[in-house]
Automatic annotation (TrEMBL):
Belongs to the SEC23/SEC24 family. SEC23 subfamily. Its main location: cytoplasm. Residues 469-569 form the Sec23/Sec24 beta-sandwich domain. It is a peripheral membrane protein. Residues 583-685 form the Sec23/Sec24 helical domain. GO terms for biological process: COPII-coated vesicle cargo loading; intracellular protein transport. PANTHER family: PROTEIN TRANSPORT PROTEIN SEC23. GO terms for molecular function: GTPase activator activity; zinc ion binding. SUPFAM superfamilies: beta-sandwich domain of Sec23/24, C-terminal, gelsolin-like domain of Sec23/24, Helical domain of Sec23/24, vWA-like, Zn-finger domain of Sec23/24. InterPro entries: ADF-H/Gelsolin-like_dom_sf (IPR029006), Beta-sandwich_Sec23_24 (IPR012990), Gelsolin-like_dom_sf (IPR036180), Sec23 (IPR037364), Sec23/24_helical_dom (IPR006900), Sec23/24_helical_dom_sf (IPR036175), Sec23/24_trunk_dom (IPR006896), vWFA_dom_sf (IPR036465). This is Protein transport protein SEC23.
Length: 802
């Protein structure tokens, strides 16, 4: 309920009051929070008034329903006696300049613990900027692959919102940066000033390609890059998007107009589509400088993906100062040349495996990981201190792969994990999975541009918002320990943050978020400020604790920023016993997210160590919350079903693709980890333990969830398994033969009902999911049935087959 309404869920719903309680929960008290959570059941009030904030600078919480005291209508009607007492820091705040009517009821109503404010005056300079998309296209691929990719790009262009600029970089061994634009026939320029028709007739398309042949990292220096392109830095920041009078698509004074076309202009759009249509794959013999075609089959393409990414980022940094930009990398294979090299172009050399990385037995892994990590940090504009921004542009990197081989996602993932972009991995640009995911990427980003958001309540939308800030304040019996997610610490260490840096993203209560969508989730960890096991400690912790999340984000219309405020009140164990407050679903997800976070911060960490740590956590939980006789192993029991369920999930987590690398490539693992870190509790649970739904002719209109056991797979039933990354429709042996034998539709109406219902259920699951799952239809005994069999309880499976 609370997750639906406030988008927040804790592993322990009663906070510890003593040291020993903290130890018993392994010091792991946390929540999964979805800042832009939206549900139809609980519409979020949207307020057009300024938020009322606590005057204590260390706190600056927003007035909320848990306010200690509030006096809005004092009897003597003297302004000075209007006040409210902050429930987080106990500061008494006057409401001197407030008209009581301006305090809208939702702010203090217990039904709206989440509220949203329109901030009219916040960061005005970065409003009204265009949407910017740079396509970064790999040309090392077959003609039919590229044709399919070109179609997808062109379709996406047609669905982009107004005020979108597009640019293009292509790469193989060298990198092509397209300078685009129009030149005017100067003689007619003034005469036809007001007659657009004539101007467009006189202008001609202009295209110049800058070629970069990068061999080492020094060649990627930003200043050198700007010099090569003769970009005048002073032109960078002066452009005022707000005053339309400045906007002249033919004015070449502003550097962006040399490299980006505005889709609002039909001619620009036409030329961009023409440009995409004109792309050709690189000829392998030219790419390899092997015109005799002697070695082609033993070599990979020479591909400079790393340098191409660096040049894209350099370009964005050089020509936009206050904008939101997205780089869309369309990759058809691994980087085989220059900085960011994943594997050499000699096919005899294999691309690194998990085993190679774990044994530190790789030629390139260390250097290339470091290169992409540095590139990711450069997105923060100032590598050392993200607080200092000399450029307010926000760049989001998206990596889309259409190839069967690995392309180096494992090394490149810091780029997406930090910037909040997406990773989509498919076997080919020709697959439906790629085509639909690609379109969905754009639809989900921009769908709300079409509907002007004028309603009082925020409508459900999926768009991403660049340039966000998350701030958390806590009551004085709590400290913030750290955060996992695509957010960067702003190093605002105060009394609210704990002194131990839990996740390298601690020592703060404020984080910058480059790109935030309603799908993005953050794991935040807290420490109860216990003293000892004494009564004093219990008294200090009191009966409850308060946490307030404030998220500022730029609305996707680019016309204003908004502030989302969620305030939650949690009881302590003085009120509810720990045992009864356990949310096993949130607990397993937090545990897995912590594990992934460890893997991401240390690429050489042993996955087995992470699994062992999970086991230790489980054992500790058993020791602290189970009942047992020390002398009798069989005596062990939990008196709360939640702990049993937790044990079952730990079992599945150990076998899931999240922690088990056997059978996965590093790129696949990176994709799973990226998605898991971003997702909310219910999606994460599906990644750990799939659901299996049964459709039977006995009850054709019912969908029955069944256990992941071989015994569940009845021969006459149809099943739908949802494993998040793939959805399987599985036909039992008899069901499959009925399906294929063209039964009479009137006689076997029940069978036709479950045939339709099972497919519809699968479609329903796939429809709203991002990244799109693979869809598999298979029968009992067929090879694809392994997707179901591999998720079943193995003991049970063997028993069945004995
Ligand atoms: Zn306060």
């Amino acid at each position: 309920d609370i997750e639906d309404r406030d988008g927040v869920r804790f592993n322990w719903n009663a906070f510890p009051t003593t040291r020993s309680e903290e130890v018993s929960i392994s010091n792991l008290l946390g929540c999964v929070y979805t800042p832009l959570n939206n549900t139809e059941d609980y519409p979020i009030p949207l307020l057009d008034s300024s938020p009322v904030t606590c005057s204590n600078k260390l706190c600056s919480s927003v007035l909320n329903p848990f306010v200690k005291e509030i006096s809005l209508y004092p009897t003597n009607n003297i302004n000075t006696s209007r006040y409210w007492v902050c429930p987080i820091c106990n500061q008494r705040n006057t409401l001197l300049n407030f008209n009581p009517d301006s305090i809208q009821l939702p702010q203090i109503s217990l039904n709206s613990t989440t509220c949203e404010y329109i901030l009219h005056d916040y960061k005005k300079s970065s409003l009204f900027s265009p949407n910017i998309i740079l396509f970064l296209v790999d040309l090392c691929l077959e003609q039919d692959e590229l044709s399919s990719l070109k179609k997808s790009i062109i379709t996406s262009i047609n669905s982009l919102p107004q005020n979108t600029l597009v640019g293009l970089i292509t790469f193989d061994s060298i990198i092509h940066l397209y300078e685009l634009g129009f030149s005017l026939d100067n003689k007619n320029k003034n005469k036809n000033k007001n007659k657009n028709q004539n101007i467009t007739e006189k202008k001609s398309f202009f295209k110049k390609i800058h070629i970069f042949n990068i061999k080492n990292e020094n060649q990627l220096n930003l200043k050198k890059f700007q010099k090569i392109l003769a970009i005048n830095e002073s032109g960078l920041s002066n452009y005022d998007y707000q005053s339309k009078s400045n906007f002249n698509p033919y004015n070449k004074n502003f550097p962006y107009q040399r490299f980006f076309l505005n889709l609002d202009n039909q001619f620009d759009k036409f030329y961009f589509i023409k440009l995409i249509n004109g792309l050709n794959p690189v000829n392998k013999s030219i790419n390899l400088h092997d015109l005799n075609n002697s070695n082609l089959s033993s070599k990979r393409f020479l591909r400079s993906t790393g340098s191409a990414l660096a040049i894209s980022i350099n370009l964005m940094k050089s020509i936009f100062s206050d904008s939101n930009a997205k780089i869309i990398l369309l990759s058809a294979g691994p980087c085989t040349q220059g900085p960011g090299l994943i594997v050499s172009n000699d096919l005899k050399e294999n691309i690194r495996t998990h085993n190679d990385i774990q044994k530190n037995n790789t030629k390139y892994f260390q250097n290339s990981s470091l290169f992409y990590k540095k590139l990711a940090l450069s997105l923060l504009n100032n590598d050392k201190n993200p607080l200092v921004y000399n450029n307010n542009s926000i760049i989001e990197i998206n990596i889309l792969v259409g190839c069967y081989d690995q392309s180096g996602i494992y090394e490149m993932q810091p780029l997406t994990n930090l910037s909040g972009g997406s990773i989509i991995v498919t076997d080919s640009f020709k697959t439906n999975l790629f085509k639909q995911s690609f379109l969905k990427l754009f639809q989900s980003e921009f769908s709300t541009h079409i509907n002007k958001d004028t309603s009082q309540f925020q409508s459900q939308n999926l768009s991403s918002h660049q340039d966000s800030l998350l701030k958390i304040s806590v009551s004085n019996n709590l400290k913030i320990r750290g955060l996992i997610g695509n957010a960067t610490s702003l190093k605002n260490h105060s009394i609210m943050s704990s002194d131990d840096e839990f996740f390298k993203n601690g020592l703060t209560n404020e984080w910058k978020i480059l790109s935030l969508s309603p799908r993005n989730n953050y794991s935040i960890f807290f420490k109860a400020d216990t003293l000892s096991n004494s009564i004093q400690s219990k008294n200090k912790m009191g009966n409850d604790a308060l946490i307030q999340f404030q998220t500022i984000y730029k609305h996707s219309s680019n016309t204003h920023y908004r502030l989302r405020v969620t305030t939650v009140k949690k009881f302590t164990t003085n009120v509810i016993p720990l045992k009864q407050s356990f949310d096993f679903e949130c607990a397993i997800v937090l545990l897995a997210k912590c594990g992934i976070n460890k893997i991401l911060s240390d690429p050489y960490i042993k996955y087995n160590d992470i699994i062992q740590e999970t086991d230790k956590n489980l054992i500790k939980l058993g020791l602290n919350f189970g009942n047992y006789d020390k002398n009798d192993l069989n005596s062990f029991s939990f008196d709360n079903i939640n702990f049993y369920s937790f044990t079952e999930f730990v079992y599945h987590l150990r076998r899931s693709n999240i922690f088990r690398i056997f059978g996965s490539s590093p790129d696949e693992t990176a994709f799973y980890h990226h998605t898991f870190l971003k997702s909310n509790v219910s999606d994460c649970l599906l990644m750990i333990q799939p659901t299996l739904l049964s459709f039977s002719i006995q009850q054709p209109d019912e969908i029955v969830p069944v256990h992941l056991k071989a015994a569940s797979l009845l021969k006459e039933n149809i099943f739908v398994m949802d494993a998040f990354f793939y959805v399987v429709v599985y036909y039992g042996e008899y069901a499959a033969s009925w399906r294929d034998s063209d039964l009479d539709k009137t006689e076997y109406v029940n069978f036709y009902t479950i045939l339709e219902n099972s497919r519809n259920e699968a479609i329903e699951i796939i429809k709203d999911r991002f990244p799109l799952p693979r869809y598999i239809e298979t029968d009992e005994g067929k090879s694809q049935a392994r997707f179901v069999m591999s998720k079943l309880d193995p003991d049970d499976f063997f028993k069945q087959n004995e």
